[in-house]
User: What shape does this take?
Amino acid sequence: MIDSATARTLGWVGAGRMGAAMATRLIEAGNDVSVTNRTRAKAEALGATVVDDPVDLADRDVVFIMVSANADLLEVTTGPRGVLSDPAHAPRVLIDCSTVSTETSAVVRAAATARGTQFLAAPVSGNPKVVKSGGLTMAISGPEAAFAEVEPYLRQIGKGVTYVGDDEVARLVKICHNMMLGIVTQAMAEITVLAEKGGVKRSAWLDFLNNSVMGSVFTRYKTPAFVNLDFTPTFTPVLLRKDFDLGMHAAYEHDVPMPLSALCTELVKVTAGAGHAADDFAVLLLEAARGAGVELVAENIVVDDGLGG
Assistant: This one.
């Protein structure tokens, strides 16, 4: 619980699809939140106080960041108008929820530490609908005392909040998670195509799978896309490829053989390069079907994704 005696002023950088959904949960919980975004209108749509630049959040107690890539994180933290660029003020705690490289995260951590700011890496698993349903999960690494201070706010954003250790280890956790995501989706795609080519309706096979010991929150969540061929993006093959590349780099550094991951990396590259770069990564199903000479047709039926709403 957060009471008036322990409440912190909050800042939020990044009001894209994920950032907006996450910031909304903090705003709706009654926190004092100020927001900035490159496109101001997206920040204004949240109904919170809007500031022009990340540097305008330097006097906030806790600042969250949710941006797309390494360069974006550096710009909003150490850049000329970054949150760490004010010589007079710096946040007590900086929490980065983006998916970035370990190297970039370490650079920002060093810059934050130099300003007396505690830095937490807090990459997340989910998408805007998962956030809205309260099902977001987060891995957090950095100073444990800082984690304890901000944990109540993290739990307002998502249900699964796991402290995983010091420094940048949360980045590796997220990369491992996304590699698992790709491998499971590829396996689900191949086996679904096998069932369909053998005469089983996709909806029937996936209903059986989801109610079996092999079913999961994830397989149920992806079932509507597989059944109805709706590839409205939640996470694209291009972004998935980025995480596979980061994961294979980590595997090389740590001398861990990952033959299955290596193969899946190439399959994701093929999918991204086959005209599906802007689709949801569930489009791996279409490439699996193409390889099997199967032309899939949308079943156009209502399928529960398990998230509610």
Summary: The longest strand covers residues 160-165. The two ends are 26 Å apart (CA to CA).
